[in-house]
Design a protein that fits this description.
The chain is of the alpha/beta class. The chain is built from 10 helices and 14 strands.
Length: 326
């Protein structure tokens, strides 16, 4: 089999490429490099620079590389930006997916793995979020991911594709420093950024109904997430799969204050967090049930929060040598 990985030069995408090629899968990457970095990819992995909106490029790459399955990661993914620019997010995340699926159907590709998000759930008030929980997204990003799931499943039913949707929880860490997240949009790099500048990390709200008053989240190491993609891809390659939707998390909650403590210990830049007012839409607790991933994929996370923070810090220091005073 040959898998086309869209967005494969991105932070998560490069880890998926590493996991799949390391296990003997053939892959080709399509990435417009708007946020991806070509140097993240192994030298022997073909990289096609292009967009999922370019039907001619899609038709060419699917035919030339005899693609038999697609892992679709390319998307806009910042919640705040989606609120400010909903038209951009619907265009990139839904219209772009439509063009890609049209090309997939025309090429006779029969396996499609969609990168989704726990943002589809909104703010459910439950101890563990199962895949059967109601999906009530509260921002355009989550809406586009849910609409993408609907579109993928409908296409699968109509055209005989085996489809899978992975709902990521909070992704962190790096397999190697070179593959680390270079953005400052998620909580761990946001903590690093402020500490490196001599400022206190920020916690938004400390009056939630949780043990220490701060929000509780489920964090998953990006290398474990990448292995989940491999597991689902191989499951889709087998017989008898219509559609499979799976949460990818550890099933364990970590509070924002606990996370700040680990970041301080690992970085050696231990400053008391600054508490700011709550942000609209933040759930008190959002922790995955990981039972289906274990049962259906035989997958389980191997790395904990400290490993995530340590590996993220190594990557941060690679790109920000001033963080260690170098």
């Amino acid at each position: 089999m040959t898998w086309l990985i869209t967005g494969g030069a991105g932070y998560i995408g490069a880890h998926v490429v590493r996991s799949m090629t390391g296990s003997g899968e053939r892959v080709v990457v399509l990435d417009d490099l708007s946020t991806g970095i070509a140097e993240r990819l192994p030298a022997d992995v073909p990289l096609v620079r292009g967009s999922v909106f370019d039907r001619a490029v899609l038709d060419h790459v699917l035919a030339r590389h005899d693609v038999t399955g697609v892992v679709h990661l390319a998307a806009k993914k910042q919640v705040g930006e989606s609120v400010e620019k909903p038209l951009l997010y619907y265009r990139e995340n839904v219209a772009g997916l439509t063009v890609l699926l049209e090309a997939v159907v025309a090429a006779g590709v029969r396996r499609f793995l969609f990168s989704s998000s726990a943002a589809v759930y909104g703010v459910p008030d439950v101890e563990l979020i199962t895949e059967d929980a109601p999906c009530v997204p509260i921002n355009p990003y989550g809406e586009t991911k849910l609409a993408g799931e609907w579109l993928v499943r409908a296409t699968g039913r109509a055209h005989g594709l085996s489809t899978g949707c992975l709902r990521y929880f909070n992704v962190a860490g790096a397999a190697t420093p070179e593959l680390s997240d270079t953005g400052v949009f998620n909580v761990i790099p946001m903590f690093f950024d402020r500490l490196t500048r001599g400022e206190a990390p920020r916690i938004f709200g400390d009056d939630y109904p949780t043990p220490d008053g701060t929000c509780v989240r489920d964090y998953i190491h990006v290398a474990d997430l990448a292995d989940a993609h491999l597991a689902l891809a191989r499951r889709l390659a087998g017989p008898g799969i219509g559609d499979l939707t799976v949460n990818i998390g550890r099933g364990e909650g970590v509070s924002v204050r606990e996370l700040a403590d680990v970041v301080g210990e690992v970085s050696g830049l231990d400053r008391k967090p600054e508490v700011r007012p709550r942000r609209p839409g933040d759930a008190a607790r959002a922790v995955a049930s990981a039972a289906r991933a274990s049962e259906e994929l035989g997958w389980a996370p191997r790395q904990g929060v400290r490993e995530m923070v340590e590996s993220a810090w190594e990557g941060w220091c690679l790109h920000h040598p001033e963080a260690r005073g170098d």
